[in-house]
Structures
1.
Amino acid sequence: MSTLPHSLAEGLDFHPQSGAHAPAAESSARLAVRNLTMRYPNGHTALDGVSLGVRAGEMVVILGSNGCGKSTLMKCVVGLNRPTGGTVEVAGRDLARLSGKDLRAARLPVALISQHANLVKRRSVLANVCTGALGRHRSLATSLGRLPRSEMEPARGFLDEVGLLHLAGQRAGTLSGGQAQRVAVARALAQRPQVVLADEPVASLDPEAADEVMRLLRRLATDDGLAVVAVLHQPELATRYADRLIGMRRGKVEFDERASSVSMQRISNLYVAQS
């Protein structure tokens, strides 16, 4: 993996759209979602035949109003929700058909970054990053909170990649919001994923910190070759950093196109209420 500078202020003139991909063919996608449906017992349909593919080295941003199905889609992809129909294929396995230990093993290549970093505040930054590797080290010792020593040095490398190696020994509870979210990214990298899902990763950050996190996610795709999918509520960040934009409305995909070809009017239409 490449090493990011400790200051992430570089690369502001990066325009991923200039080399943006067309919608990924399912055969070449690292993440392939096909005809995904999620219906709840009360009759509400959260997802209605959603399909998308994301390739290695590609960053895709999903846009849409609250309740359009974005977060439900992310939960189905990572296996937190079980869809009522369709498939979610990662590394050749359909996560939608698995459960228990088979699901836990199959979803290891998928790392989820949430709106809140959810760090263990009393533990060090380095220890928090190491927890990303626990899925590969299931034992009595790790169940009691001990961290595998073999993961310490790689964790330092992941902290260096997000520009925070100098804070490795600091308590996580002392970090700013932007720093905490970058540690969450490093923790996701410790999982050694093929796919990174970021569900509103900058929603609680100020503009400068949000830009830092988006630059970092962009570099995970460009430099590390990961497939990155982010749910955002900030169209300006989406158009600046994404290769492709997926617009969702009422549980369906309204568009899936190069970021450079999607107008702000089409994005605005996603947020217009329908009777």
2.
Amino acid sequence: MQVEQKIDQMLQEAVRMQATDLHLMPKQNGYLLKIRVGGQLIKSETFSLREGERLIAYLKFTASMDIGEKRKPQSGSFRYTAHQLPLSLRISTLPAVPHKESLVIRLLPQEYAPPLSHLTLFPYTASQLISLLHYSNGLILLSGPTGSGKSTTLYSMIQHCASHLNKHVITLEDPVEKQQDAFVQIQVNEKAGITYSTGLKAILRHDPDVIMVGEIRDEETARAAVKSALTGHLVLSTIHARDAAGVIGRLMELGITQHEMTQTLIGITAQRLIRIRCPNCNGICIETCTQSTRQAIVCELLSGKALFDALKEKQINEERSSYKKLQDELRKGMAYGFVTGEEWARWCFS
């Protein structure tokens, strides 16, 4: 089979399985393909050394990467359509020993952001997130580990702002993950002079109601996001932290003062993407199950008085406030039969 046909077959199958990532991993005598579905890596098939190298070379060429460079990490992307679903494929390579490469493909569906009610395990979580979007200014931060669905939640929130609240939304991303017609999207391009700082300055002159910053990674981005919120705009972004309260410490590490947080922060979330109990397997799906495992977001939300107490370093009274920790939400999901004990244990102490 030709390389192009094989890659097309792999991608079509991945989309059918609702996969999020494809891993082409080097082994001693060849390559192993694994597919991430529902948060789990599933072994798919094996290739000889020659077949694996040809697949990697073709994907690198298609993603405008240097096919001759195997000693350095590279990244690229290209567009693809499978089952009438437009996708953006992000390609990442890493050098591996001896003289091989590991390649990962991230599948990013385009032009569709599911409503929040379709993402969250509990309906009240979607209602709480939507209520934050009615603020005219302030800073909303979504936290969680890689693969917890932060970007999908973020896109759904700004889609709601644009479609239901009729607000002018501008995004600044590195890179743009999902191309949408509902808002203006800008991609960071440092070679062209578009950094997070300069991009946000330009956005503020473009009469936005809502600004979405793809991710707060460093002090410059954090300061630019806070400044935008202080100038009377609603700013949404993501940040890496273990839980909602941990975001406050993370911002302090990035040079944001307690006073600035008090003036800007209106909501902090920490979320996990959990696998829902499969009716066929009476638990998490086994590899041979034909039922695609549905996933949902479980989220803790720090806002209102609980957020004020956390910023003032006071003890949060969880009984009197609506603030429930991730462990509480996971335990509730298990009590209702949506979450298995295995899944609860996987996330409860992560």
